[in-house]
Amino acid sequence: MVTRKQAGPESGAVLAPEQSRTKPPPMYKVLLLNDDFTPMDFVVIVLEKFFGLSREQSTQVMLKVHREGKGACGVYPRDVAATKVEQVSEFSRRHQHPLACVMEEN
After folding, report:
1. CA distances for 91 relative to 10, 18, 39, 64, 75, angstroms
2. How far apart are CA 70 and CA 91, in angstroms?
3. Contact yes or no for 88/46 (Cβ under 8 A)
4. Reported confidence tier of residue 10, pLDDT bands at 50, 70, 90
5. How far apart are the first and last CA of the chain?
6. Which residue from 6, 10, 33, 99 could staple onto 38, CB 3.0 to 4.6 Å apart?
7. 62 and 40 Cβ atoms separated by less than 8 Å
8. Mind giving me the DSSP string for the chain?
9. Buried-state track 59-84, b at ≥16 Cβ within 10 A, e below 16
């Protein structure tokens, strides 16, 4: 008859730590939406101020918003994206522009 040893502290066996894999949090795309009233220069300022884009990058995104109706400003974790949407919306209201900023899951 064969007996098996239990793997325990007295057996000397070392168990490998269990690998836990957590998936990264969902990312959200922040978008500006076109309207017929917000000046293009104001959109460029918003992109530079809140998204850290260069003048050239800001102009490219602004033109995309103007021509296609919306343009992506960046991709962020949910809390960061929500904060940026709120900052842009508040800044636009304060300057009396209807510029809409939204986020969608990437």
Report:
1. 66, 48, 14, 21, 20
2. 18
3. yes
4. low
5. 61
6. 99
7. yes
8. ---PPP-STTTT--PPPPP---PPPPEEEEEEE--SSS-HHHHHHHHHHHH---HHHHHHHHHHHHHHSEEEEEEEEHHHHHHHHHHHHHHHHHTT---EEEEEE-
9. bebbeebeeeeebebbebeeeebeeb
Residue 17's alpha-carbon distances to 7, 14, 20, in angstroms, are: 14, 9, 9
Cα–Cα dist 65/73, whole Å: 10
How many residues does the structure list for the chain?
A: 106
- State the pLDDT at residue 19: 77
- CA dist 85 and 103 (Å) reads 7
